[in-house]
Each structure stands twice: as structure tokens, then as C-alpha cells.
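User: C-alpha cells for this complex, please. No commentary.
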Amino acid sequence: MTTRFQPLKSVLNLRAGVPSRDLKAADIIPILKSMDALADDASAQALVLSPASINAGNIRPAAASPVLLTPSLIARHLLLKGDVIVSARGEFVAGLMDETTTGLANGSPILAGPLCHVLSIQEWSPALPEFIVWLLGTEYAKQHMAAAARGSSISLYSLDTIGSLPVPILPLEQQKAIAEASKAGRALRESRIALAEAESETNNSELCRIAGINA
Amino acid sequence: MSDSNTSGSFPVSQVVAYSLTERFEKLEIAERKLIAELYAMDALWYLAQAQGKKTVAFPAIIRGIGQSPFRYLVNRATAGQDTPEETATQARGLFEEFVISNQEAIGFGGELKFSLRDSSKIRLPLALLLEVERMARPDRVIAEDPRQLAEVMGVILNSGKGAIDDQVHRPGSEFSILLSKLCPLSPGSGVLDMSCGTGTLLHKLLTDKTRIRAFGQEMDAELAVISWLRLQLHPSAESAKVYVGDSLRYTYASSYQANPIDVALVHSIDLDADEENKASFEQYLREAAEIEQRATRQRVELEHRCEEATRSLHEVARAYQRLKGDTPGLSPSQNDEARKEFEARWREAEARLRDLQQQHASAQQMASEASRALKAAYERAKKPALDRTYDLIMHGLDCVGGTGMAIAVVSARELFKSPQVDRLRTEALTHDRLDLVVELPRGVDGAEDRVAVLVFRRGRKGEPILFVDATDHETVKKAVRLSASEPVIGYRRSRSTILTSEFFSAIAQVCVDRVEIPGVSALVPRSALGGTSVDGRQVDLRPRQFIVTDRLEESVADSQTRLAECHQAVVNAEAALLKARAQLGLDPLFTKTQTSKPIRRPGTH
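Assistant:
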């Protein structure tokens, strides 16, 4: 059976993160508020993600910056569960917005910053977000991005570059199984590293005991 | 939508810390101090308005216009009258006038004068003033919780990077938790902080303990004023006094017998200052020796030249004597000419000799002066070097009553560097006053080296000395079971993820309980300090050498448990992967790991 491929931009919706100019414009909000020139509900705090918040397919908002923004801006850029965030420059990384991410944000709205792009799954999307995250983490996707990126010292990934990645269109069950196998593979890798470290420490302790050393 | 920047359920100080720490971090140290000073003045103005207290005097312009100092500056800036630089100049002027109006209360007088350090380049942007006012305007804070005023001042001074406490090496808020718990203060007892800095420790003590008498002394005049202001904002301010000047010379040093205290706190982690003194003295000695050598060489050289000049004078004199008679072969006129020439040479040689003799005399004087200076320098070198830390500890012990204690925060080098360690060891062996030694990791109070806490107690009855090694955060964490919970707000911006309040609380618990924990603490009999170490040297005061690291037997059990847990995690992960691959019709990648064996207990087969 031959797998059918479609460009990423036809599989889901692509958009850029919050533009820098909007974040710069938001700098005035605290001053306006201090001068009572802004109503209480005219601004709210949101967490703005950077690529540093993305690690091994996960998004951890610990490195995100809290910023006061207008509610309309937050509503326009708000990230939802199932959105995929990719970096727009530097090392190409992708992460998935899941329950853990929203839980760690303590209820604050999360937005993608200017150095990120957002891939949103739509009703018509023939792909699962977990599958897309796995795909974007493969060497296949990284090579594609490296080849299509602009920039001589720092690679820049435009929405067109990312949207041009050919995505294999598989049955949803198969996508789900691949995503699960990928997740299980990562979990096995981490647990094996932890086991190897524990074995090494135990071995050293026992050797020290034989040598009569209090280690 | 609620305003996320109003205090809500969080104390005002935490909201200020969370919202403005990044702004404060970017400020110069002088700007940060000035904002804190302004805020304190403002808060005192509002307190005076609210409570009708006239304990502090305000600058004439503030009294005249009836506005708070902060509002006065903000109004001027918003009216376009002042640039940020001019606002800073105005603020400095207000503050100086404020201090001068209240100088007697702070203890200035005599040779102790107040003057702000050169801070002509500082700026006070309007936006920052507005931010501080919006977040923590004193009248709103007073209505909500007056205790927060001093807290907000502490946040302005010490939140985030570049904290003033760190810059001036004084106890920070986290470290104050440990020191506060080491102070066994009951209601009515007194405590003296000999380097109170921005007043963080005194503030902590006043907050934690009830009805204590707190005295602070600070050598740096501006810090002393800041500390005084901070305590004025504290609800228990009546029982607190801050003095300016050197703890060994001024105010409390001469009145401690009238004001007995129970705990004296010494904070002297800058061992480098003593080292620098020593180095500069050695340099002086070297230079004195060089000058003496140079002067002696010059003297000897001039002696030789004088001898030569004398010789040549004698030769001229002899030749002249010969010419006095008639020289055969010379006409009388030629003879006269020759005589005149010899007379001129004789006068010249005589003048040169006089000149050299003068030079020789002055060189001799210089040489003898240089020699005297060198002798004096050698005499000074024979005397023991000034050890301010030790002097402060001894002064602290003099200040406390019969069963009082002195807590010293010193550089950890004092624990092994001679002669400092010799004095401390003698204090422990001879007078039985050393009670506790804690070695802490680098970075406490901005120290670049490790720091040690030494507790000296009067009236000990030969109990063992507790040594605590807290240099390894991981060991302490394992031994004392630090939980992972951290402050909810502002945690991300805390100075260090290691030196947390929880870490210091855990160490304080070990010290208060006086328990031996393998790898962390040990109770050592006093006599052990008189012995020698494995390499034949006298035992120093580093805790590590006394602490039994008998983790081995325990760690066998612990590591077996961890091993079993990791093993089980691998088995589970393998099963999940095999299942996921099977769903995709893929063959197993590996042979399954056997399920975990029962844990082997030490001593069993």
C-alpha cells in the first residue's frame, strides 16, 4: 500500500505567535493602569511561551514570561489543548499543549511568543496532534526544515517552510498507535537511563564496602 | 475580570516582589536605596497622618504643602517640571533634610556625620514611582495590614538579583531564618546585631518573636539610616533601636552594661579585608627594606667619593707645598702662574669635598632614618595581625549576660586558616564556649566563599560541640527530607534555587534538635579539638572531618529500593512499548527484562 502525502499546511491550520510589536505595545499597559487610565478588566496576565519552554515533545511553561496583555489579544492568540507549538528560529523543536501544560500554568492563559509558530488541528484535519508532534521530532522533518530554512547563521523557519513538510496521511488508529509507541519509547529511554545510573551507584557503594571505605 | 496586580489573597509585599522585581533588578544600588528610603519616608508620613504621631520630623517643604514625599515628587514629574535625574536630585535633597531633622534619634553626632555617597548620576523614572505607588501606596497598605510596610521596603531593597544585603554582605531574608531560629529569645530578652545592614535580621526577629528588645549597630551610615527607617515601620519598633558607627567603638559598645542582652550577632564574612591589610603591610615592609638598602648603598658610595676627594685634595696640597719654593727651570712669573693654578685647583677640590661631605651627612641621616623605619616595621610584623572578626566575637560575648550567646557568621576560611582557627580553638578548649559550628555552601549573603556560623555560649557545662556540614545541598535534602514545595509567587525569581528558606529551616532544625545525622551533623567532645588529625596537624574546625559518613549500611537498603523501583519502571515501560509496537504489527525490539526481584536487605542472604 502506498502512503499518501499532503503538505502540512493542508493538514492543519498554521499561524504565527504573538507579534513582537503587540508585546512591545503592551508595555504601556502597567503605566496606563497606574494612572487609572485603563479599566480593571482591560488587561490580564498571560504566559508567553518561547522555544525554551519546549522539550522532548512537551511544553513546560516554567520558562514562560508573565505579561499583561489586552483581553482581545489574548483571545486571538490563546493556545488550546491539542495545539502544536514549533520554534520559528534556531533548533527546530515541537511540543504539544496537553493537560500537564495547562495544569502547570495554574489557570493563566498561555500564548505562543514571537519566536514560535502554532499548528492548530481543525475539524477537517486528517491528523492527530500527537502524531504531528512525533513527525516533527523525526530526523525526516528536521532535514526538511534544515533544507528549506532561511538564514545563514541562525535558521529561520517561516510558516511556508513548515507548511511545506509532506505529511503521511494514515488512518487515525495507526496515527494513534505510532504516537503511543513513540511516547512509550521515550519513557523507556528515560527509565533505562535512571536504572543504569542507579545500578552504577549501587555497584560503587558495594565496591567501596568491600574496600572498607565509607563512601 | 479581576485586577491581577492588586493584592487579592496575596500579601502586598509578595505582589510587589512578583510584579516589580525585574524592574528593581535593573536599578543601580544607589537608585534602589533611594526608592526604599523614599518609600519609608512616605510610609512614615502616612503613619503620622493616620495615628497623629509626631515622633519623626519631615522636611519643611513636605510640612508646608501637606503632601506625602512620594506624591510631591510624582506631581512635579507629571507636571513636566523634573526629568528623572532632577527627580532623583529632589529626592536626595528631601532625604538628606529628613535625616538631618532626625539625626539625634538615629545616633549621629560628634564625629559621626551623615552624608549620602556620590550618587549624582542616578535617575528616578516617573513610571517606576507610579508603579510602586500604585502597588503599595502606604495608606492602602496601612488599611490592609500595617506590618506589610516594612516588608515592602525589604522587597524594594532585596528582591531578586543585586539585593543590597548581598552587595554589602549582610544577612538576607532566607539566611535570617536560620539565624532567627538559633536565637533562643523569650519575651523580654535582648538581642544585638552588630552589623545590621538593611535591618533584615532585626525585622525577622521582631516579626517572629514577641516582646524582644532589639538593638542594631551599623558602620555604614546610609545602611544604618535604612535599617532605622525599616524598624520605624515595624509595629514593634518601640522595642528596637538602631545605632550608627563601629560596633567596637560607638554607642552600644559603651552602654552595654546598662542594657544587657542575651544574644549578640556578629556578621563578618569578609576575611579578604584582613588578608588585604596583611598584604599591604607586607608590601610596606618590602618597600622599607628596599629604601634602607638604597640609602645604605648611597651612603657607602658617598663615603668612597669623599675619601677620593680628600685624597685628591691632599695631592693638590702636597704639590702646592712643593711649588712654594723656587722650581728649577721655571721663571718667577711662570712659577707664580703655576702657584695660582694650584691654588685654584686646591679651592675647587676643597669645595667639592665640602659638597660631598654635606651629601654624605644627609645620606647618613637618610640611611639611619630608613634603618629606624625598617626596625619599626619588623617590630610591628612581630605583633599578631589585627583580627577584627575575633575581636567582634569577644565583644559580643562581653555584651551578653551569664548564659547568653554570641552567634558569628564568618568566612569558612576561619575554620582552618591559621592564626584565626587557633584563637577559636583556644576559645573552645580553654573557656568551653564554642557550642555549634555550621558550614554552609557558597553564595550565602553574596559571599564568594563558603560561610560558617559559629555559636558561642556562656555557661556551658562540657556538653559536646555540634558540627553541621551543610555544604552539600543534596545530602541535607536527603537527610532532612526537604519537600519540593516552594513559595507559590515570586519563586521563579528567587535568588537561588538552593539557598531557599526551606533549606535554612532544615539546617536550623538540625541545630536546634542537636541530633547526629550521618553525613550532616556530629556531636564532638571538646577534648577532640586538642588532638591531631591523620596528617599530624592540629585538628581544625571543619565539620566534615568529624562527621561519620556511615551511609554505607543504610545506603544499601536505600539503593536496593531505588534499584527495584527503577527496574520496575523499565519493565513497565518495556511492556508499554512492546504493546504499542505489537499494535503496529512490529516485532519486539528486545527480550523482556525479568520482573523485579524482592528487595535484598542488608545482612540477609
